[in-house]
Design brief:
40% of the residues lie in helices and 22% in strands. It is built from 9 helices and 11 strands. It comes from Paracoccus methylarcula.
Length: 300
């Protein structure tokens, strides 16, 4: 049985589509389909059932997943055993909420690529938790530790958030001296039914029940605040990227959250991924501290 066919089989099982697997592997969908058919012929069984929702594993396909993942793990270990120790190369896909992906990971990725010229980093910004079981990413950053799944979980760092607005908005609207004053102002926040983690329910901290402008993206929220459209809760580490945005009622509204690094449990044996996870964790900690300190130094 060809390992490369098993690799394609796992990609289809995880992505639940030929096109999705092809994008993950850099192949066209027709090639993926032919390779799956070849594997099915080799094992003498149908491995997938095509449904309106995508390609679903049959009972025979489900039984092949564990052996295929064992082969995948062995292939990764073999590659690491023969790789030169002078640097880490290959692809690393990191899933993250868009605040982290937009304001932290680009700088962290730059430093990691400078340290490892052969490394290719892919940043996947999703308004939900990345599914590591389906190998949507090699590792993921989350805003709360998961309750289920075969994952290793590492707390990275705390970060802080405050109510903020652009100075143009504040100059054009009534002054804000207490929480009661917020009810006369336009608020910006998350679309309520698209809050995928309870840690993102920031608006409740203000005492205001509804927002006039909402988005499932924290970056879109920040752009609305930069456009002087209203007030919203923002990451302190994002404020240096938004000239003119300053904190409002910082002594009354102050939130603390944490980032968590998630990895698939089977990846603990991978020295390469462990080293990259350590560098990523250190980079996130340093960048949060740098940016939060930068705002404190420059002030509003």
């Amino acid at each position: 049985m060809d390992w490369d066919d098993l690799r394609i089989f796992l990609a289809v099982a995880r992505m639940e589509s030929l096109s999705g697997a092809g994008r993950r592997l850099g192949l066209d969908a027709s090639t993926v389909g032919r390779r799956v058919a070849r594997l099915e012929q080799a094992v003498g069984a149908t491995l997938f059932a095509k449904t309106p929702q995508g390609y679903v594993l049959t009972a025979e396909g489900g039984r092949l997943v564990a052996p295929a993942e064992a082969a995948e793990k062995a292939a990764v270990a073999a590659g690491e055993a023969t790789r030169r120790e002078t640097g880490i190369s290959g692809q690393l896909r990191i899933g993250a909420p868009d605040g982290c992906a937009n304001y932290l990971l680009p700088q962290v990725a730059r430093r990691m690529c400078e340290a490892h010229p052969g490394l290719e980093i892919q940043i996947v910004a999703l308004p939900r938790v990345v599914n590591l079981s389906k190998r949507e990413a090699d590792m993921a950053i989350a805003v709360s530790p998961p309750d289920t799944g075969r994952l290793t979980v590492q707390r990275l760092t705390e970060y802080h958030l405050h109510l903020a607005a652009h100075e143009d908005y504040l100059h054009a609207h009534p002054p804000i001296s207490g929480l009661a004053d917020l009810h006369g102002h336009r608020m910006i926040g998350y679309i309520p039914d698209m809050i995928f983690d309870r840690e993102l329910d920031y608006l409740s901290e203000t005492g205001v029940e509804t927002a006039a402008i909402t988005s499932n993206s924290v970056s879109v929220q920040m752009q609305a605040i930069r456009a002087a459209a209203g007030l919203g809760i923002v990451h302190d580490f994002a404020i240096p990227f938004a000239p003119g945005v300053r904190k409002v009622l910082p002594d009354l509204i102050s939130l603390t959250r944490s980032f968590w690094l998630l990895r698939h449990a089977d990846d603990r044996a991978s020295r390469r991924l462990t080293l990259l996870a350590e560098e990523l964790a250190q980079g996130i900690r340093q960048e949060v501290a740098r940016l939060e300190g930068l705002y404190q130094t420059k002030g509003p």
